[in-house]
Design brief:
- The protein is flat and about 90 Å long.
- Helices cover about 10% and strands about 50% of the residues.
- The protein has a 21-stranded mixed β-sheet that branches.
- It has 2 domains: about 100 residues, no CATH class; about 170 residues, no CATH class.
- The protein has 2 helices and 21 strands.
- The chain is mainly beta.
């Protein structure tokens, strides 16, 4: 009969403890390996700071309009709203809340150089992680009603909104945000976006130029000439008055132009793989590439009324429509 002594019991307990320690180490190493595989082999460092619900942002800057003839506004991710100032000063208000380290908080910068006022929201160049954590920040700029100079507004991913203002030249651009522009009087108006949408209403301009890569464009009640280009979005523009020149082109979207019922224009419309529709009575001159007069469902040229104005509308793989809107006095 085998005798079990206290020494042998202690030895067995020690061996069990050592075995358990080795198994735990193997499991931990395996978890680390699989965790690295799941994250693409990249070990992400732990955050340097623990943040609460967000640090309040509330900055105001005021400069006198004086002899200002150009204003530029720029942000990265903040939305921008431009409105009328209650006095003769240019006012900027940056507000919201940000979840980031105290030394990485964005801040408002306003610089006046001669006739130019520059308004920006700046942040540390290496704080790209903060872009994800920032929430509910907005830059509002108030410009005096008497100002008639140039205005350029740019945001990387924020929306841009303007209403009821007038400028000599206005340029609005964003990479992935939307643009909303209503009730504007502008000599030269430029709008551009890569992947955002553009909506505008009641525009009185000499010339409007629109460029978009993959967003849709909708304009209502435009007065003035138009040049619009889109890579893969739809273009829909309604005119309150027939302009002298319209050029509207899209690579893979639909193009719709709405003209007053009493419009007079010369039409050139093309669609490589879409349908053409014109609601006006067109005296047609249709030609194929071979030069003979014939019907061609992808090309339409002709005159409406006196043919006084020029309308060129084309798309590669979408439909083209020239429709009627209500006539204006």
């Amino acid at each position: 009969m085998t005798r079990i002594t206290l020494g042998s019991v202690a030895l067995m307990l020690l061996l069990v403890a050592i075995g358990a320690f080795l198994i735990a180490g193997i499991i931990g190493a395996s978890a680390g390996i699989f965790g690295a595989i799941a994250s693409g082999g990249i070990a992400f460092p732990a955050p340097e700071h623990e943040h609460g619900p967000g640090t309040p942002i509330n900055e105001h800057k005021v400069v006198a309009m004086a002899k200002t003839n150009q204003i530029t506004i720029a942000t990265a991710i903040e939305g921008i709203v431009v409105r009328e100032s209650p006095d003769n000063n240019i006012r900027a208000w940056f507000h919201g809340d940000v979840s980031t380290a105290p030394d990485r908080l964005p801040h408002l910068v306003v610089v006046q150089k001669g006739g130019t006022v520059e308004i920006q929201v700046k942040r540390k160049q290496d704080s790209h992680y903060d872009w994800i954590s920032e929430t509910n920040t907005q830059l509002e700029v108030a410009i005096p009603a008497a100002y008639r100079g140039k205005l350029a507004v740019n945001s990387t991913s924020g929306n841009i909104t303007l209403e009821d203002q007038a400028y000599t030249a206005l340029a609005l651009s964003t990479t992935s945000g939307n643009i909303e522009a209503n009730g504007l009087g502008v000599n030269t108006f430029s709008l551009s976006t890569n992947s955002g949408n553009i909506h505008a209403d009641n525009l009185d301009t000499d010339q409007t130029k629109i460029d978009t890569t993959s967003g849709d464009v909708e304009v209502v009640d435009l007065r003035g000439n138009l040049e619009a280009h889109s890579t893969s979005g739809n273009l829909e523009v309604g005119f309150a008055k027939t302009p002298a020149h319209i050029i509207a082109e899209s690579n893979s979207g639909e193009v719709t132009m709405r003209l007053p019922e009493d419009a007079n224009f010369t039409l050139h419309a093309d669609s490589t793989s879409g349908d053409l529709t014109c609601a006006f009575p067109v005296t047609t001159t249709i030609r194929r590439s071979g030069g003979r007069d014939d019907e061609d469902e992808h090309h339409l040229s002709g005159t409406v009324g006196t043919g006084k104005n020029n309308v060129k509308v084309c798309t590669t793989s979408g439909d083209v429509q020239v429709t009627q809107s209500s006539a204006t006095p």
